[in-house]
Amino acid sequence: MKFIHRLAYYLFGFSVGMIFLVFFLNKKGASCDYSPNARVKKNIRLKPKVYSEDVLAKIQEKNLDTSYVAYLLERGRVRFGESDTNRALCNLYVITGKKDEKSLRLEVENCDEHAVIISLSETN
Question: pTM, whole model, 2 decimals?
Fold first, then answer.
């Protein structure tokens, strides 16, 4: 069999497999969160969140809302260099990102059963 025929069979099978994946497995909500950044954010997103009094006051003062926190947990970047992952009970993670021309910094204590939002601040 010539190389061009083998290539055609391969591409046909590959395209059928991709169509199968896109249409059938996409509906199941499967995700591939393999990077450390994605795993940490997904772990925090799935837990109930508790907001500290400081964060609630800042949200009211700066005319922010909790959608900024949700946005950072979805699209932000975990700063492992600034985070403390060797704590005894709850690891502390620093997540940064931009939304609506604002650079935001979020500090989250990730405990076993819940996540505590410790601080939310605007950075330059």
Answer: 0.73
Q: What distance in Å separates the CA atoms of residue 28 and residue 68, rounded to the nearest whole number?
A: 27
Per-residue model confidence as pLDDT tens digits over 25-49: 766 666 667 888 999 999 999 999 9
- DSSP assignment string, the chain: --HHHHHHHHHHHHHHHHHHIIIIIGGGT-----SHHHHHHHHHHHS-EEE-HHHHHHHHHTT--HHHHHHHHHH-EE-TTT-B---SS-EEEEEEEEETTEEEEEEEEE-SS-EEEEEEEEE-
Which residue is associated with the tokens 């931009």? 98
